[in-house]
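[User] I have long wanted to understand how a fold can be written as tokens. Those tokens are not coordinates but codes from a learned vocabulary of shapes. Could you go through the record with me and say what the backbone is doing? Thank you; the sequence and its tokens follow:
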Amino acid sequence: HLQLVESGGGSVQAGGSLRLSCAASEYISGNYQMGWFRQAPGKVREGVAAIYVGGGYSFYPDSGRGRFTISQDRSKRTLYLQMNRLRPTDTGMYYCAAGETIYTNPLDVSTYHYWGQGTQVTVSS
């Protein structure tokens, strides 16, 4: 029943910033986790950032740590991804996802059950 809709993607020069948003159609309980995933053409979908909804703990791969920040506004049922100092390698389709926390790797795509349609991010040099 849960629907997720991403927005905020676009084209930006290397070194620039973008802020992505993910709007949820329903309230998401505290035992859930949410994440952002990127898929480039011909590549696997990989985790960019994740958050435990109830506790607010966040997770990042080494490639995004220090540049990307995941956050949420539960009153607005919205998840965000702030991306700074963007690189061409950050280019791809960005997907928002949600799933019940099972305390495995929250950056693993297989732990999620609900997905948005994605928003394109293109970083040029």
About this structure: The chain has a mean pLDDT of 96. The CA atoms of residues 35 and 50 lie 4 Å apart. The radius of gyration is 13 Å. The longest strand covers residues 92-100.
